[in-house]
Amino acid sequence: MTFSPFRIDVSDEVLDDLRARLARTRFTDRSGDQPWQAGADPDYLRHLVSYWVDGFDWRAREAELNALPHYQAKIGGRRMHFLRVPGARPAGAPAPLPLILSHGWPSSFVEMLPLVDRLTDPAKYGNDPADAFDVVVPSLPGFLYSELPKGPLTRASMAQTLHLLMTDVLGYQRYGAFGGDVGGVVTGWLGALYPEQVAGVHMIHPPFPASFDSHPMSPAEQAYLDAEAAYDESDGGYGAIMGTRPDTIAAALNDSPAGLAAWLVDKYRDWSDNHGDLESRFDRDTLLTIITLYWTSGAIGSSFRQYFDFHHNSPRPNITVPAAFTVSTEPSHANFPREIAERACTDIRHWSEPGRGGHFMPLEEPDLLAAELTQFFTSLRPY
């Protein structure tokens, strides 16, 4: 398979239409007594939309993104977008291990960019240049510039696509994989399906086993599952609608940029380690870069497909390759017991609970996460 360069190129007409829609936004009133109590806070949304219209410089961000090496390939007849950044290895050093970094929802390849420089050129950050990696960052199928497959979008099918990208398209014989959220589940599937080629897997969201039937659950496991179910009572509405009526909500979000922003920033605030202050973790330019990518690609609806097709997923085999975890601090993963992951993984080499960094940890704590990735994957030498 071959691949070719790709550029992000948003027309002036699309940007003019976006600004016109934003200028006509009809804002709602707050439902609860407190900001963010009932979802995206209307006052914050007004603030963000105003900046989107008058302060945000998409062309500058577009140029920054296009300074990176973007590519596209056809896999299974469908377009796949990815970045590929070679490691800056010293002369005479062994070839760097390739790493594929997979984002989740509601995210994009932008989430992984702070890791790219730290992993490909560690000397720039005062670290050992021999620890450089080759880095590949895909847009998962259905996200931004990567097309949906012809059949159901399952975790296994996404893993198969990423494996073909790494092996058939890019020619790597062996590689490591990292991910969070959906990208983390896909990372687990890579380790389960391709143990001969996958050197190890690293995730911020530890996996569940295909079944809890092998032995009785511990009190810690039961307490976690009960707490997760309770949290879903207040947070699970987004998933319920995207899993049952995705076309209904996609019609609204694909027509209203302010609505799209509300849908996304609600989760960036709820799931990150920001202590109630969204912009303490993500500046407005970063948030609006991600939102503008979703808007201009028209991909919000296709990003829901992995929810709608969830029932097509089959049980995942055990993950037998070396595994590492830097556990997210987001509410749904508070007090996640290692024994649940041990039911799914037979070779956990590293388990870290740093107490900071949430669902979007590559953006939130890039130095911490780059160090953990480097520590784990260099420990697997020779690859």
Automatic annotation (TrEMBL):
Keywords: Aromatic hydrocarbons catabolism, Hydrolase
Gene3D superfamilies: alpha/beta hydrolase
InterPro entries: AB_hydrolase_fold, Epox_hydrolase-like, Epoxide_hydro_N, Epoxide_hydrolase
Pfam families: EHN
Enzyme class, broadest EC rank: hydrolase
Tagged with keyword Metal-binding: no
GO MF: hydrolase activity
Domain Epoxide hydrolase N-terminal intervals: 4-112
EC number: 3.-.-.-
Family: Belongs to the peptidase S33 family.
Protein name: Epoxide hydrolase family protein
